[in-house]
Amino acid sequence: MSFSDTAIAAAPSSPPAVMAPSVTVSAPIAPEARFRSEMGQISRHSAVFFLGTLFTAAAGYFFKIYVARVLGAGALGVYALGMTLVGFFGLFNGLGLPQTAARFVAAYSATGQFDRLRAFFQHALLWLAVANVTLAAAMVLAGPWLARTVYRSADLAGYLHLFAGLLVLSGFSTFLGQVLAGYKDIALRTVITNFISSPLNIIFGVLLLAAGAGLRGYVWAQILSGAVVLVLLAAATWKLTPSAARHFSGKARKVEAEVLWFSAAVFGVSLLEFLLAQADKIMLGIFLDVRQVGIYAVAGALVGFVPVALQSVNQIFSPTIADLHARGERQLLARLFQTLTKWIVGLTLPLALVMIVDSRPLMRLFGPGFEAGWIVLILGTLGQLINAGVGSVGYLLLMSGNQRRLIRVQAIMAVFVMVATGALARPFGIAGVALAAALTNAIANYLNLREVRAALRISPYNRTYLRLLLPAAASAAALLGVRLLTIGFHPEWVAIAAGLVLAYAAFCGLALLIGLDDDDRMIVTAIRRRLLGAVRRT
Fold it and tell me: Is pLDDT at 66 greater than 60 in this prediction?
Protein backbone atom coordinates (compact mmCIF):
# COMPACT_ATOMS: atom_id res chain seq x y z
CA MET A 1 0.00 0.00 0.00
CA SER A 2 1.09 3.57 -0.52
CA PHE A 3 0.51 6.59 1.70
CA SER A 4 0.99 9.20 -0.96
CA ASP A 5 -1.93 11.40 -2.02
CA THR A 6 -3.99 10.77 1.06
CA ALA A 7 -4.45 11.93 4.62
CA ILE A 8 -2.71 10.09 7.45
CA ALA A 9 -4.28 9.48 10.80
CA ALA A 10 -3.04 10.65 14.13
CA ALA A 11 -0.02 9.05 15.73
CA PRO A 12 -0.32 7.92 19.34
CA SER A 13 1.12 10.69 21.37
CA SER A 14 0.29 13.53 23.64
CA PRO A 15 -3.27 14.73 24.20
CA PRO A 16 -4.68 16.39 21.11
CA ALA A 17 -4.20 20.09 20.78
CA VAL A 18 -7.01 20.46 18.23
CA MET A 19 -10.27 21.33 19.92
CA ALA A 20 -13.28 19.53 18.53
CA PRO A 21 -16.36 21.53 17.64
CA SER A 22 -19.50 21.14 19.69
CA VAL A 23 -21.59 18.15 18.70
CA THR A 24 -25.33 18.25 18.31
CA VAL A 25 -27.02 15.01 19.30
CA SER A 26 -29.43 13.78 16.65
CA ALA A 27 -31.60 10.76 16.16
CA PRO A 28 -29.69 7.60 15.23
CA ILE A 29 -29.59 6.73 11.55
CA ALA A 30 -30.68 3.27 10.42
CA PRO A 31 -27.78 0.93 9.53
CA GLU A 32 -28.93 0.58 5.91
CA ALA A 33 -29.14 4.35 5.50
CA ARG A 34 -25.67 4.75 7.04
CA PHE A 35 -24.26 2.12 4.71
CA ARG A 36 -25.83 3.81 1.67
CA SER A 37 -24.54 7.21 2.76
CA GLU A 38 -20.98 6.05 3.39
CA MET A 39 -20.85 3.97 0.23
CA GLY A 40 -22.24 6.83 -1.83
CA GLN A 41 -19.60 9.25 -0.55
CA ILE A 42 -16.82 6.73 -1.13
CA SER A 43 -18.03 5.91 -4.66
CA ARG A 44 -18.35 9.57 -5.68
CA HIS A 45 -14.88 10.65 -4.58
CA SER A 46 -13.29 7.39 -5.70
CA ALA A 47 -14.87 7.79 -9.13
CA VAL A 48 -13.26 11.20 -9.66
CA PHE A 49 -9.84 9.93 -8.64
CA PHE A 50 -10.35 6.71 -10.65
CA LEU A 51 -11.20 8.63 -13.82
CA GLY A 52 -8.22 10.92 -13.31
CA THR A 53 -5.93 7.95 -12.80
CA LEU A 54 -7.31 6.16 -15.86
CA PHE A 55 -6.79 9.28 -17.94
CA THR A 56 -3.23 9.65 -16.72
CA ALA A 57 -2.55 5.94 -17.20
CA ALA A 58 -3.94 5.83 -20.75
CA ALA A 59 -2.18 9.00 -21.86
CA GLY A 60 1.00 8.12 -20.01
CA TYR A 61 1.14 4.60 -21.43
CA PHE A 62 1.29 5.71 -25.06
CA PHE A 63 3.66 8.54 -24.15
CA LYS A 64 5.98 6.05 -22.41
CA ILE A 65 6.01 3.93 -25.57
CA TYR A 66 7.09 6.99 -27.55
CA VAL A 67 9.71 7.96 -24.97
CA ALA A 68 11.09 4.43 -24.77
CA ARG A 69 11.47 4.22 -28.53
CA VAL A 70 13.14 7.64 -28.75
CA LEU A 71 15.47 7.39 -25.74
CA GLY A 72 16.09 3.64 -25.44
CA ALA A 73 16.65 1.52 -22.34
CA GLY A 74 19.98 3.11 -21.40
CA ALA A 75 18.68 6.68 -21.10
CA LEU A 76 15.56 5.50 -19.29
CA GLY A 77 17.81 3.65 -16.85
CA VAL A 78 19.67 6.89 -16.11
CA TYR A 79 16.31 8.60 -15.60
CA ALA A 80 15.09 5.86 -13.23
CA LEU A 81 18.27 6.16 -11.14
CA GLY A 82 17.89 9.93 -11.03
CA MET A 83 14.34 9.58 -9.78
CA THR A 84 15.48 7.29 -6.97
CA LEU A 85 17.70 10.17 -5.81
CA VAL A 86 14.73 12.55 -6.07
CA GLY A 87 12.68 10.12 -4.02
CA PHE A 88 15.40 9.68 -1.40
CA PHE A 89 16.13 13.38 -0.92
CA GLY A 90 12.38 14.02 -1.14
CA LEU A 91 11.92 12.07 2.07
CA PHE A 92 13.77 14.79 3.93
CA ASN A 93 12.57 17.88 2.07
CA GLY A 94 8.95 17.17 3.07
CA LEU A 95 9.73 16.57 6.78
CA GLY A 96 6.40 14.72 7.07
CA LEU A 97 4.57 18.01 6.49
CA PRO A 98 2.42 17.09 3.46
CA GLN A 99 0.49 14.35 5.28
CA THR A 100 0.43 16.48 8.40
CA ALA A 101 -1.25 19.22 6.36
CA ALA A 102 -4.01 16.84 5.26
CA ARG A 103 -4.95 16.25 8.89
CA PHE A 104 -4.44 19.61 10.59
CA VAL A 105 -5.71 21.84 7.77
CA ALA A 106 -8.98 19.88 7.93
CA ALA A 107 -9.12 20.14 11.73
CA TYR A 108 -8.27 23.84 11.98
CA SER A 109 -10.55 24.96 9.14
CA ALA A 110 -13.47 22.83 10.37
CA THR A 111 -13.25 24.25 13.91
CA GLY A 112 -12.59 27.85 12.88
CA GLN A 113 -9.10 27.95 14.44
CA PHE A 114 -7.72 30.25 11.76
CA ASP A 115 -4.88 31.60 13.89
CA ARG A 116 -3.54 28.05 14.25
CA LEU A 117 -4.08 27.42 10.56
CA ARG A 118 -2.15 30.59 9.71
CA ALA A 119 0.68 29.62 12.07
CA PHE A 120 0.86 26.15 10.53
CA PHE A 121 1.17 27.61 7.02
CA GLN A 122 3.81 30.12 8.12
CA HIS A 123 6.05 27.53 9.75
CA ALA A 124 5.43 24.78 7.21
CA LEU A 125 6.23 26.94 4.18
CA LEU A 126 9.37 28.29 5.85
CA TRP A 127 10.56 24.79 6.79
CA LEU A 128 9.83 23.55 3.28
CA ALA A 129 11.76 26.41 1.67
CA VAL A 130 14.84 25.87 3.84
CA ALA A 131 14.74 22.08 3.50
CA ASN A 132 14.24 22.13 -0.27
CA VAL A 133 17.04 24.60 -1.00
CA THR A 134 19.43 22.77 1.32
CA LEU A 135 18.67 19.32 -0.06
CA ALA A 136 18.72 20.48 -3.69
CA ALA A 137 22.22 21.86 -3.09
CA ALA A 138 23.25 18.63 -1.35
CA MET A 139 21.93 16.62 -4.27
CA VAL A 140 23.96 18.63 -6.78
CA LEU A 141 27.11 18.42 -4.67
CA ALA A 142 26.90 14.81 -3.42
CA GLY A 143 25.07 13.41 -6.43
CA PRO A 144 28.12 12.97 -8.69
CA TRP A 145 29.83 10.81 -6.07
CA LEU A 146 26.69 8.70 -5.68
CA ALA A 147 26.32 8.39 -9.44
CA ARG A 148 29.89 7.22 -10.02
CA THR A 149 30.49 5.21 -6.86
CA VAL A 150 27.12 3.65 -5.98
CA TYR A 151 25.32 3.48 -9.33
CA ARG A 152 28.45 3.30 -11.51
CA SER A 153 26.81 5.69 -14.00
CA ALA A 154 28.89 8.71 -14.96
CA ASP A 155 26.10 9.89 -17.29
CA LEU A 156 23.77 10.54 -14.35
CA ALA A 157 26.04 13.26 -12.95
CA GLY A 158 25.28 15.57 -15.90
CA TYR A 159 21.56 15.65 -15.10
CA LEU A 160 21.65 16.16 -11.35
CA HIS A 161 20.89 19.89 -11.45
CA LEU A 162 17.69 19.10 -13.39
CA PHE A 163 16.67 16.41 -10.93
CA ALA A 164 17.32 18.92 -8.14
CA GLY A 165 14.78 21.21 -9.80
CA LEU A 166 12.25 18.37 -9.85
CA LEU A 167 12.97 17.80 -6.17
CA VAL A 168 12.02 21.37 -5.23
CA LEU A 169 8.90 21.42 -7.39
CA SER A 170 7.66 18.07 -6.11
CA GLY A 171 8.26 19.08 -2.49
CA PHE A 172 5.99 22.13 -2.67
CA SER A 173 3.43 20.50 -5.01
CA THR A 174 3.03 17.48 -2.73
CA PHE A 175 2.47 19.76 0.27
CA LEU A 176 -0.12 21.91 -1.51
CA GLY A 177 -1.86 18.84 -2.90
CA GLN A 178 -2.31 17.52 0.63
CA VAL A 179 -3.57 20.93 1.74
CA LEU A 180 -6.35 20.56 -0.85
CA ALA A 181 -7.04 17.12 0.58
CA GLY A 182 -7.33 18.77 3.99
CA TYR A 183 -9.92 21.11 2.51
CA LYS A 184 -11.64 17.93 1.19
CA ASP A 185 -11.45 19.01 -2.44
CA ILE A 186 -10.08 15.82 -4.00
CA ALA A 187 -11.85 16.61 -7.27
CA LEU A 188 -10.02 19.93 -7.76
CA ARG A 189 -6.69 18.34 -6.90
CA THR A 190 -7.35 15.53 -9.38
CA VAL A 191 -8.16 18.00 -12.15
CA ILE A 192 -4.86 19.81 -11.59
CA THR A 193 -2.56 16.84 -10.96
CA ASN A 194 -4.11 14.50 -13.54
CA PHE A 195 -6.19 16.21 -16.19
CA ILE A 196 -3.89 19.25 -16.53
CA SER A 197 -0.48 17.92 -15.51
CA SER A 198 -0.40 14.84 -17.76
CA PRO A 199 -1.30 16.60 -21.05
CA LEU A 200 1.19 19.38 -20.32
CA ASN A 201 3.94 16.88 -19.61
CA ILE A 202 3.17 15.02 -22.84
CA ILE A 203 3.03 18.19 -24.94
CA PHE A 204 6.30 19.56 -23.57
CA GLY A 205 7.91 16.13 -23.81
CA VAL A 206 6.94 15.50 -27.43
CA LEU A 207 8.06 18.98 -28.49
CA LEU A 208 11.45 18.71 -26.78
CA LEU A 209 12.11 15.10 -27.81
CA ALA A 210 11.13 15.87 -31.41
CA ALA A 211 13.60 18.77 -31.32
CA GLY A 212 16.34 16.30 -30.41
CA ALA A 213 16.76 17.33 -26.77
CA GLY A 214 16.99 13.69 -25.63
CA LEU A 215 16.87 12.80 -21.94
CA ARG A 216 17.59 16.40 -20.98
CA GLY A 217 14.47 17.49 -22.85
CA TYR A 218 12.41 14.74 -21.20
CA VAL A 219 13.39 15.98 -17.73
CA TRP A 220 12.87 19.62 -18.74
CA ALA A 221 9.33 18.72 -19.87
CA GLN A 222 8.57 17.50 -16.36
CA ILE A 223 10.09 20.62 -14.83
CA LEU A 224 7.94 22.90 -17.01
CA SER A 225 4.72 20.99 -16.40
CA GLY A 226 5.57 20.75 -12.69
CA ALA A 227 6.01 24.52 -12.48
CA VAL A 228 2.57 25.10 -14.03
CA VAL A 229 0.99 22.58 -11.66
CA LEU A 230 2.65 24.25 -8.66
CA VAL A 231 1.21 27.65 -9.65
CA LEU A 232 -2.28 26.16 -10.07
CA LEU A 233 -2.10 24.32 -6.75
CA ALA A 234 -0.94 27.51 -5.02
CA ALA A 235 -3.83 29.48 -6.56
CA ALA A 236 -6.35 26.81 -5.53
CA THR A 237 -4.94 26.73 -1.99
CA TRP A 238 -5.13 30.51 -1.70
CA LYS A 239 -8.73 30.50 -2.89
CA LEU A 240 -9.83 27.78 -0.44
CA THR A 241 -7.95 29.19 2.55
CA PRO A 242 -10.22 31.35 4.75
CA SER A 243 -9.34 35.03 4.52
CA ALA A 244 -8.56 35.15 8.24
CA ALA A 245 -5.71 32.66 7.70
CA ARG A 246 -4.17 34.38 4.67
CA HIS A 247 -2.41 37.24 6.44
CA PHE A 248 1.17 36.41 7.38
CA SER A 249 2.16 39.71 8.99
CA GLY A 250 3.15 40.00 12.62
CA LYS A 251 4.70 37.51 14.99
CA ALA A 252 3.96 33.90 14.12
CA ARG A 253 2.22 31.75 16.70
CA LYS A 254 4.06 28.65 17.87
CA VAL A 255 3.12 25.33 16.35
CA GLU A 256 1.62 22.79 18.76
CA ALA A 257 3.76 19.90 19.93
CA GLU A 258 1.19 17.49 18.51
CA VAL A 259 1.87 18.78 15.00
CA LEU A 260 5.62 18.24 15.43
CA TRP A 261 5.11 14.74 16.84
CA PHE A 262 2.76 13.78 14.05
CA SER A 263 5.21 15.06 11.40
CA ALA A 264 7.99 13.00 12.96
CA ALA A 265 5.82 9.87 13.01
CA VAL A 266 4.81 10.36 9.38
CA PHE A 267 8.43 10.88 8.42
CA GLY A 268 9.30 7.50 9.94
CA VAL A 269 6.50 5.81 8.01
CA SER A 270 7.59 7.53 4.79
CA LEU A 271 11.20 6.42 5.24
CA LEU A 272 10.15 2.79 5.60
CA GLU A 273 7.77 3.13 2.67
CA PHE A 274 10.59 4.51 0.51
CA LEU A 275 12.80 1.55 1.34
CA LEU A 276 10.00 -0.85 0.42
CA ALA A 277 9.13 0.96 -2.82
CA GLN A 278 12.60 1.89 -4.10
CA ALA A 279 14.87 -0.89 -2.80
CA ASP A 280 14.53 -2.85 -6.04
CA LYS A 281 15.67 0.03 -8.25
CA ILE A 282 18.48 0.99 -5.87
CA MET A 283 19.83 -2.57 -5.80
CA LEU A 284 19.49 -2.81 -9.57
CA GLY A 285 21.61 0.32 -9.92
CA ILE A 286 24.25 -1.19 -7.63
CA PHE A 287 24.41 -4.70 -9.13
CA LEU A 288 23.27 -4.32 -12.78
CA ASP A 289 23.76 -1.90 -15.68
CA VAL A 290 21.53 1.06 -16.49
CA ARG A 291 19.97 -0.73 -19.48
CA GLN A 292 18.56 -3.39 -17.16
CA VAL A 293 17.32 -0.64 -14.86
CA GLY A 294 15.52 1.00 -17.80
CA ILE A 295 13.77 -2.25 -18.79
CA TYR A 296 12.77 -2.87 -15.18
CA ALA A 297 11.49 0.71 -14.79
CA VAL A 298 9.19 0.39 -17.84
CA ALA A 299 7.77 -2.92 -16.59
CA GLY A 300 7.35 -1.39 -13.14
CA ALA A 301 5.41 1.53 -14.60
CA LEU A 302 2.95 -0.92 -16.15
CA VAL A 303 2.65 -2.83 -12.87
CA GLY A 304 1.78 0.46 -11.18
CA PHE A 305 -1.48 0.58 -13.15
CA VAL A 306 -2.75 -2.71 -11.67
CA PRO A 307 -3.88 -1.45 -8.22
CA VAL A 308 -5.73 1.59 -9.62
CA ALA A 309 -9.06 0.46 -8.12
CA LEU A 310 -7.47 0.05 -4.67
CA GLN A 311 -5.78 3.45 -4.87
CA SER A 312 -9.04 5.12 -5.88
CA VAL A 313 -10.94 3.62 -2.95
CA ASN A 314 -8.16 4.49 -0.49
CA GLN A 315 -8.47 8.19 -1.29
CA ILE A 316 -11.81 8.48 0.52
CA PHE A 317 -12.07 5.22 2.50
CA SER A 318 -9.05 6.16 4.64
CA PRO A 319 -10.73 9.13 6.41
CA THR A 320 -13.96 7.10 6.58
CA ILE A 321 -12.07 4.46 8.57
CA ALA A 322 -10.97 7.06 11.11
CA ASP A 323 -14.51 8.44 11.38
CA LEU A 324 -16.23 5.08 11.88
CA HIS A 325 -13.58 3.79 14.27
CA ALA A 326 -13.87 6.92 16.41
CA ARG A 327 -17.66 6.43 16.54
CA GLY A 328 -17.28 2.78 17.48
CA GLU A 329 -19.23 1.63 14.41
CA ARG A 330 -17.12 -1.48 13.85
CA GLN A 331 -19.92 -3.50 12.26
CA LEU A 332 -20.47 -0.87 9.57
CA LEU A 333 -16.71 -0.59 9.05
CA ALA A 334 -16.41 -4.35 8.57
CA ARG A 335 -19.32 -4.36 6.13
CA LEU A 336 -17.80 -1.56 4.07
CA PHE A 337 -14.39 -3.25 4.16
CA GLN A 338 -15.79 -6.53 2.83
CA THR A 339 -17.88 -4.94 0.10
CA LEU A 340 -15.18 -2.54 -1.09
CA THR A 341 -12.49 -5.23 -1.12
CA LYS A 342 -14.67 -7.52 -3.23
CA TRP A 343 -15.27 -4.71 -5.72
CA ILE A 344 -11.56 -3.91 -5.78
CA VAL A 345 -10.78 -7.55 -6.55
CA GLY A 346 -13.43 -7.68 -9.27
CA LEU A 347 -12.20 -4.50 -10.96
CA THR A 348 -8.55 -5.59 -10.72
CA LEU A 349 -8.74 -9.23 -11.88
CA PRO A 350 -9.37 -8.68 -15.63
CA LEU A 351 -6.60 -6.07 -15.86
CA ALA A 352 -4.18 -8.35 -14.01
CA LEU A 353 -5.03 -11.23 -16.37
CA VAL A 354 -4.25 -9.02 -19.37
CA MET A 355 -0.91 -8.01 -17.86
CA ILE A 356 0.01 -11.67 -17.34
CA VAL A 357 -1.30 -13.22 -20.57
CA ASP A 358 -0.12 -10.37 -22.81
CA SER A 359 3.11 -9.64 -20.94
CA ARG A 360 5.39 -10.18 -23.94
CA PRO A 361 3.43 -8.10 -26.50
CA LEU A 362 2.88 -5.38 -23.90
CA MET A 363 6.62 -5.03 -23.35
CA ARG A 364 7.34 -5.28 -27.11
CA LEU A 365 5.25 -2.14 -27.64
CA PHE A 366 8.09 -0.16 -26.05
CA GLY A 367 10.60 -1.61 -28.51
CA PRO A 368 12.28 -4.98 -29.14
CA GLY A 369 14.87 -4.38 -26.45
CA PHE A 370 12.21 -4.18 -23.73
CA GLU A 371 10.67 -7.64 -24.26
CA ALA A 372 13.07 -9.09 -21.68
CA GLY A 373 11.00 -7.35 -19.00
CA TRP A 374 7.98 -9.66 -19.49
CA ILE A 375 8.86 -11.74 -16.43
CA VAL A 376 9.07 -8.55 -14.34
CA LEU A 377 5.59 -7.63 -15.51
CA ILE A 378 4.16 -11.03 -14.52
CA LEU A 379 5.80 -11.18 -11.10
CA GLY A 380 4.95 -7.58 -10.31
CA THR A 381 1.32 -8.08 -11.35
CA LEU A 382 0.99 -11.12 -9.09
CA GLY A 383 2.31 -9.08 -6.18
CA GLN A 384 -0.16 -6.25 -6.87
CA LEU A 385 -3.02 -8.73 -7.25
CA ILE A 386 -2.34 -9.85 -3.67
CA ASN A 387 -2.20 -6.19 -2.67
CA ALA A 388 -5.66 -5.62 -4.15
CA GLY A 389 -6.94 -8.90 -2.73
CA VAL A 390 -6.50 -7.85 0.90
CA GLY A 391 -7.98 -4.36 0.42
CA SER A 392 -7.12 -1.33 2.53
CA VAL A 393 -5.46 -3.24 5.38
CA GLY A 394 -2.61 -0.76 5.82
CA TYR A 395 -4.96 2.17 6.11
CA LEU A 396 -7.19 0.25 8.53
CA LEU A 397 -4.22 -0.02 10.87
CA LEU A 398 -3.05 3.54 10.37
CA MET A 399 -6.40 5.30 10.59
CA SER A 400 -7.61 3.32 13.60
CA GLY A 401 -4.66 4.29 15.80
CA ASN A 402 -2.79 1.02 15.27
CA GLN A 403 0.07 2.54 13.29
CA ARG A 404 2.65 0.93 15.56
CA ARG A 405 1.56 -2.45 14.20
CA LEU A 406 1.96 -1.08 10.67
CA ILE A 407 5.40 0.39 11.36
CA ARG A 408 6.52 -2.92 12.85
CA VAL A 409 5.48 -4.78 9.70
CA GLN A 410 7.15 -2.18 7.47
CA ALA A 411 10.39 -2.32 9.44
CA ILE A 412 10.51 -6.11 9.12
CA MET A 413 9.77 -5.98 5.41
CA ALA A 414 12.32 -3.21 4.77
CA VAL A 415 15.03 -5.53 6.03
CA PHE A 416 13.56 -8.45 4.09
CA VAL A 417 13.43 -6.62 0.75
CA MET A 418 17.04 -5.44 1.02
CA VAL A 419 18.31 -8.93 1.88
CA ALA A 420 16.14 -10.71 -0.70
CA THR A 421 16.97 -8.24 -3.48
CA GLY A 422 20.69 -8.42 -2.75
CA ALA A 423 20.59 -12.23 -2.74
CA LEU A 424 18.56 -12.59 -5.97
CA ALA A 425 19.87 -9.69 -8.08
CA ARG A 426 23.22 -11.15 -9.18
CA PRO A 427 22.19 -14.73 -10.04
CA PHE A 428 18.81 -13.92 -11.62
CA GLY A 429 19.07 -10.28 -12.78
CA ILE A 430 15.87 -8.28 -13.13
CA ALA A 431 13.77 -11.43 -12.68
CA GLY A 432 15.33 -11.98 -9.25
CA VAL A 433 14.72 -8.36 -8.24
CA ALA A 434 11.10 -8.61 -9.41
CA LEU A 435 10.64 -11.83 -7.43
CA ALA A 436 12.03 -10.18 -4.28
CA ALA A 437 9.65 -7.22 -4.74
CA ALA A 438 6.65 -9.50 -5.31
CA LEU A 439 7.47 -11.61 -2.25
CA THR A 440 7.83 -8.47 -0.18
CA ASN A 441 4.44 -7.22 -1.37
CA ALA A 442 2.75 -10.54 -0.65
CA ILE A 443 4.27 -11.08 2.81
CA ALA A 444 3.73 -7.47 3.90
CA ASN A 445 0.04 -7.58 2.97
CA TYR A 446 -0.40 -10.95 4.68
CA LEU A 447 1.17 -9.59 7.88
CA ASN A 448 -0.96 -6.43 7.69
CA LEU A 449 -4.08 -8.57 7.27
CA ARG A 450 -3.13 -10.57 10.36
CA GLU A 451 -2.64 -7.36 12.31
CA VAL A 452 -6.06 -6.06 11.19
CA ARG A 453 -7.71 -9.26 12.37
CA ALA A 454 -5.88 -9.11 15.70
CA ALA A 455 -6.48 -5.41 16.36
CA LEU A 456 -9.94 -4.81 14.87
CA ARG A 457 -11.44 -8.32 14.67
CA ILE A 458 -12.56 -7.81 11.08
CA SER A 459 -11.76 -9.57 7.81
CA PRO A 460 -12.40 -8.64 4.16
CA TYR A 461 -13.61 -12.11 3.22
CA ASN A 462 -16.97 -13.86 3.28
CA ARG A 463 -18.67 -16.59 1.27
CA THR A 464 -19.85 -14.22 -1.46
CA TYR A 465 -16.27 -14.12 -2.79
CA LEU A 466 -16.86 -17.62 -4.18
CA ARG A 467 -19.26 -16.04 -6.65
CA LEU A 468 -16.29 -14.36 -8.34
CA LEU A 469 -14.71 -17.67 -9.39
CA LEU A 470 -16.92 -18.30 -12.44
CA PRO A 471 -16.68 -14.68 -13.74
CA ALA A 472 -12.89 -14.85 -13.29
CA ALA A 473 -12.74 -18.12 -15.25
CA ALA A 474 -14.91 -16.63 -18.01
CA SER A 475 -12.67 -13.57 -18.18
CA ALA A 476 -9.54 -15.71 -18.45
CA ALA A 477 -11.14 -17.90 -21.14
CA ALA A 478 -12.18 -14.85 -23.19
CA LEU A 479 -8.70 -13.38 -22.94
CA LEU A 480 -6.96 -16.62 -23.90
CA GLY A 481 -9.34 -17.03 -26.83
CA VAL A 482 -8.46 -13.58 -28.15
CA ARG A 483 -4.77 -14.29 -27.62
CA LEU A 484 -4.90 -17.54 -29.63
CA LEU A 485 -6.94 -16.00 -32.43
CA THR A 486 -4.65 -12.98 -32.81
CA ILE A 487 -1.24 -14.69 -32.85
CA GLY A 488 0.84 -12.85 -35.43
CA PHE A 489 -1.72 -10.05 -35.73
CA HIS A 490 -0.36 -6.54 -36.18
CA PRO A 491 -0.54 -3.96 -34.73
CA GLU A 492 -0.34 -5.86 -31.44
CA TRP A 493 -1.93 -3.12 -29.38
CA VAL A 494 -5.25 -3.71 -31.16
CA ALA A 495 -5.28 -7.34 -30.03
CA ILE A 496 -4.32 -6.30 -26.48
CA ALA A 497 -7.10 -3.71 -26.36
CA ALA A 498 -9.64 -6.23 -27.69
CA GLY A 499 -8.57 -8.74 -25.05
CA LEU A 500 -8.91 -6.14 -22.30
CA VAL A 501 -12.43 -5.16 -23.39
CA LEU A 502 -13.62 -8.76 -23.71
CA ALA A 503 -12.03 -9.77 -20.40
CA TYR A 504 -13.92 -7.03 -18.56
CA ALA A 505 -17.13 -7.70 -20.52
CA ALA A 506 -17.05 -11.41 -19.66
CA PHE A 507 -16.26 -10.78 -16.00
CA CYS A 508 -18.79 -7.99 -15.45
CA GLY A 509 -21.53 -9.67 -17.46
CA LEU A 510 -21.35 -12.92 -15.51
CA ALA A 511 -20.78 -11.13 -12.19
CA LEU A 512 -23.99 -9.14 -12.69
CA LEU A 513 -25.89 -12.40 -13.21
CA ILE A 514 -24.52 -14.56 -10.39
CA GLY A 515 -21.89 -12.64 -8.43
CA LEU A 516 -23.84 -9.95 -6.57
CA ASP A 517 -25.19 -9.99 -3.03
CA ASP A 518 -27.64 -7.47 -1.56
CA ASP A 519 -24.93 -4.88 -0.79
CA ASP A 520 -23.51 -5.21 -4.31
CA ARG A 521 -26.95 -4.75 -5.86
CA MET A 522 -27.40 -1.61 -3.77
CA ILE A 523 -24.18 -0.20 -5.25
CA VAL A 524 -25.13 -1.19 -8.81
CA THR A 525 -28.54 0.45 -8.39
CA ALA A 526 -26.95 3.65 -7.09
CA ILE A 527 -24.49 3.74 -10.00
CA ARG A 528 -27.28 3.14 -12.51
CA ARG A 529 -29.34 5.98 -11.05
CA ARG A 530 -26.40 8.37 -11.15
CA LEU A 531 -25.62 7.50 -14.75
CA LEU A 532 -29.25 7.90 -15.80
CA GLY A 533 -29.43 11.20 -13.94
CA ALA A 534 -26.29 12.45 -15.69
CA VAL A 535 -27.72 11.44 -19.09
CA ARG A 536 -31.02 13.23 -18.43
CA ARG A 537 -29.21 16.40 -17.33
CA THR A 538 -27.20 16.44 -20.56
Answer: yes
